[in-house]
Amino acid sequence: MDCKLRAKNCGGCPLLGLDYAAQLKQKEEKVRALVGKYGPVHPIRGMEQPYHYRNKVISTFAPGFGGKLTSGIYAANSHKVLPVESCLLQDEVLDKTMQAVRAAANACRYQPYDEDKGTGLVRHCLLRRGVATGQVMVVLVTAQPVLPGAKNFVKALLAETAQRGVTVTTVVQNVNSRKTSVVLGEAEKVLYGKGFILDTLCGKSYAISPRSFYQINHTQTEVLYGLAVEAAKLTGKEVVLDAYCGIGTIGLTAADHAKQVVGVELNRDAVQDAIGNARHNGVKNARFFAADATRWISEATAAGEKADVIFMDPPREGSTPEFLTSVARMEPKWVVYVSCNPVTLARDLATLTKLGYKAEGFTPVDMFPHTEHIETVCALSKLDIYQKITVDLKMDELDVTAAETKATYEEIREYVKEHTGLNVSDLYIAQVKRKCGIKERQNYNKPKAENPKQLKCPTEKEKAIREALKHFKMI
Ligand code: SAH
Question: What is the distance in A from the centroid of ligand 1 to the CA of 383?
Answer without folding.
Answer: 27
